[in-house]
């Protein structure tokens, strides 16, 4: 009897995590994709399916934008109807977005086993929507696949003492799979040389929804741009919030596909970001990172200064920028596993079905 699995995804990082999972699935497995439509802009959606060779979603819920409460309520209703129809053996949810949470809640209420990929991450910042989503998803899940030993320890502290497995990080799998294709022509297109620019991304609600914080971040970037080239891919949601700012000194570009972004990451002087995923990708690619947050769900990246948490304190940011390059000998990618997380997950799910 074949195994039927449904993956629920909705944004850029989840499409990337889906990429190695699909490659690890045997032909005997029936795999369906539910796309919640949380990211629906072509540069955040279609380009990733195309770049990574991900099949078109079997169901697109077209949730789009909306308040957290609306997305969660409407998402649960729409996912419930699909799960009731398909009745899978497992539902896979990825990361910490609203798409993750609605998939977990709907599956739990229907008593369908849930596997949370990237379980156990904690920033310990209760104001982050992602922190709530992570915790609630872990509570709902039947199996918790952790990316690091730290994530396993976090879960044990919270009383999870069974159905917890350290597989390593699935985005490390994706990175290793993509390395052969990740040298694109984007540097020539943007007319920049390796190690000649900073790469900046800002997308978290705590920064984009607060006008005073956003204004301070943009001022910091503009000040830095007087002496350095700043390449700034802008999320469509963020672009709307930036309409009042003079961004002429910054190299503002549209969001990029996975391979173009990896090329820019690898060749940047440093990364300036509030993204969790980019902190980790920068670490794995040995590019120093400055994070405009007070905390991180990836404490491993702070190892020997490869990632520095500055918040939006201009003095801290200036000090982090002035730091010399990090010692490559003090870099430990093995903290994130061996690049075979997807195969470990699939071996486990298949074995559980055969018992």
Helix coverage percent of residues? 40-55%
How many beta-strand elements?
A: 13
CATH class placement of the largest domain: Alpha Beta
From the alpha-carbon coordinates, what is the Rg to the nearest angstrom?
20 Å
Explain what the structure shows:
- With 355 residues, the chain is an alpha/beta fold.
- The protein has 2 domains: 4-169 and 337-354, Glycogen Phosphorylase B (Rossmann fold, 3-Layer(aba) Sandwich); 181-335, Rossmann fold (3-Layer(aba) Sandwich).
- It is 43% helix and 15% strand.
- It has helices at residues 12-24, 46-52, 68-86, 98-109, 129-140, 149-157, 170-178, 186-190, 205-208, 211-224, 236-241, 258-267, 276-284, 314-322, 341-354; strands at 4-9, 30-35, 59-60, 90-94, 114-117, 143-146, 164-166, 197-201, 229-233, 251-253, 270-273, 289-291, 307-309.
- The strands form 2 sheets. It has a 7-stranded parallel β-sheet, with helices on both faces.
- α1 (12-24) packs across α15 (341-354), α3 crosses α4 and α4 runs parallel beside α5 (129-140).
What's the gist of this structure?
With 355 residues, the protein is of the alpha/beta class.
List keywords for this structure.
355 residues; seven-stranded parallel beta sheet; alpha/beta; Rossmann fold; 2 domains; six-stranded parallel beta sheet
């Amino acid at each position: 009897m074949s195994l039927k699995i449904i993956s629920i995804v909705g944004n850029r990082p989840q499409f990337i995590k889906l990429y190695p999972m699909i490659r690890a699935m045997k032909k005997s497995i029936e795999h369906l994709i539910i796309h919640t439509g949380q990211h629906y802009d072509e540069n955040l959606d279609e380009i990733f399916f195309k770049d990574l060779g991900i099949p078109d979603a079997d169901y697109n819920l077209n949730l789009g934008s909306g308040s957290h409460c609306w997305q969660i309520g409407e998402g649960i209703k729409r996912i419930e109807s699909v799960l009731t129809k398909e009745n899978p053996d497992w539902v896979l949810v990825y990361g910490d977005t609203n798409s993750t949470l609605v998939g977990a809640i709907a599956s739990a209420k229907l008593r369908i086993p849930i596997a949370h990929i990237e379980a156990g991450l904690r920033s310990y910042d209760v104001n982050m929507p992602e922190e709530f989503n992570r915790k609630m998803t872990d509570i709902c899940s039947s199996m918790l696949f952790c990316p690091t030993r730290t994530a396993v320890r976090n879960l044990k502290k919270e009383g999870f003492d069974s159905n917890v497995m350290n597989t390593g990080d699935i985005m490390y799998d994706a990175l290793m799979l993509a390395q052969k294709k990740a040298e694109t022509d984007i540097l020539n297109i943007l007319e920049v040389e390796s190690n000649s620019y900073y790469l900046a991304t800002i997308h978290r609600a705590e920064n984009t929804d607060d006008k005073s914080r956003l204004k301070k971040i943009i001022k910091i970037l503009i000040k830095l741009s007087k002496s350095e080239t700043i390449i700034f891919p802008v999320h469509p949601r963020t672009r709307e919030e930036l309409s009042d700012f003079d961004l002429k000194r910054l190299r503002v570009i549209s969001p990029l596909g996975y391979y173009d972004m990896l090329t820019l990451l690898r060749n940047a002087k440093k990364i300036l970001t509030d993204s969790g995923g980019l902190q980790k990708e920068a670490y794995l690619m040995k590019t120093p990172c400055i994070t405009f947050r007070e905390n991180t769900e990836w404490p491993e990246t702070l190892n020997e200064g490869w990632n520095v948490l500055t918040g939006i304190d201009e003095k801290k940011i200036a000090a982090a920028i002035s730091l010399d390059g990090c010692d490559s000998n003090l870099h430990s990618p093995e903290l994130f596993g061996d690049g075979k997380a997807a195969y470990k997950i699939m071996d486990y799910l298949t074995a559980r079905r055969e018992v």
